[in-house]
Here is the input.
Amino acid sequence: MKLLIIAALNKLNKYTNNSARGVWFLTILLLSSLVVKVQAQSDTILMRINERTITLKEFAYLYEHNSIGSYDTPQKCAEELIDFLLLSEHARAQGLDTLPSFREQLKAYQDSCDLLALLPSPLLQQARVETEPMVSLSLILLKTPQRASSHLLKQTELKMDSIYQALQNGLTFQDAVANNSFYKQQLLLKRAQMSNELVSAIENMEPGNYSHPFWEPQGMCIVKLHQNDVREVVYDDKKIDSLIDIRLQSLKEMFRYQCNESAKDELLRTNATNSPLFKIAEKEYTLPDFQRFANHFSMSIQCQWDAFVKWALVNHFYDNLHQSLDYRLNEQIKVDSLLVAAYNKQQNCLLPTDEELITYFEAHKKQYTWQEKRFKGIVLQAADKKLLKSVRKWLKKMPYEEWQDALRMVINKDEIRVLSVQQLFSKGDNPYVDEKIFKQGKAVVNSQFPYVELLGEQLKKPEDVNMVKDSVLRDYMRAKRDDLMNDLRSSSTIDLNQDVLKTVN
Here is the structure.
């Protein structure tokens, strides 16, 4: 199991090559089998959820450490825990615990826990290497050849404009990436790996926001910033080796390691002894224990002895660790959390159809009223006042949905003559709308496009689901989850001892 430590550090090959110390420790790792069967604690049962029991001691620990959610009373914690475990059980019943992604995530968690237990965080920090900060972002990239024709460039601009307008009208960035972008996955990049244009686009951007369309060397982009200053966790091999040796010495003191020096000398001279070799806590290690260990490795008997002692110390350490209440509970809750996360990911890929969203919206219209009016329209800017008024008059005769296409294909066909922003505006979204429609503030005049015209109408409430799509989708998914939880509760055996729960404070 301690091979997991090496996997967590991605340094297996170096441990096998650097030194005899590395070989010894690798030996420990390869032969430590620390699957511990923890006996159920003799404690008061607080709740039963189908076949699963939660004791008072376990619940008190979860409540104290706020392990499963956000709550302010034991009663709310108990209800959240019931839903949480029911959903985990549901995910397991669907076989989500067999997915490779789930097993990889669980293994990584166990590796990190074991490593942090052996080398607590303050100690491990001594081996940490500072890395260059990175940026987490997503790109909608329409890739174009370096020598693209003017026609292709224009088509790319038109397509990106359409994507941007769709984002403004409620399309999720994730869906836009999935359907259009050259890069489908979230990216983690150093600034040196980014183009100057991309760096400039995110320079003053707040996490969670996205840019206007812009050109960069690979093509046309819209970038969404997730997180700045992301740091990789990297450790120095030699420092890890040294810290492990120091830690093993402390384990000798912790577990009252007692070596039978005469038996050790006899073993090293004759490869045999009838006396106990050493004791860790109350457990004695004998010649057969050593032989079972040494038979797996061809090395000098001195190296075998050193490796065996270290293996025994680490083995005892993890035996005790894995039997502790906090470790056992944290691992159980982590398994449940990963199952719930896997289920949520699965459900997020099963988005409702437009028809389902419309039906839901029509049935719940009252909850989507606005506290303040919105402006559904377009902001037009131009250098030519006469042109701008004629464009406004021209657009007025067309359906709202055709305005942007008309501007691209006719007015701005050869050059940008009229700037436009078309969306559902709230207060604060656009300075021109704020000034002219909502009668607040004063917009700064654009010297290149000083003349401004607005076309549209004020709305007291949304006309259709597209105007509140994100909210409707969120509520739809929440309602779907609530229906599932009601079904799971009604089909499950749930027993919560309220008298016992009252003892938690």
Notes: The CA atoms of residues 137 and 225 lie 5 Å apart. The chain has three domains: 3-128+236-335, 134-230, 370-460.
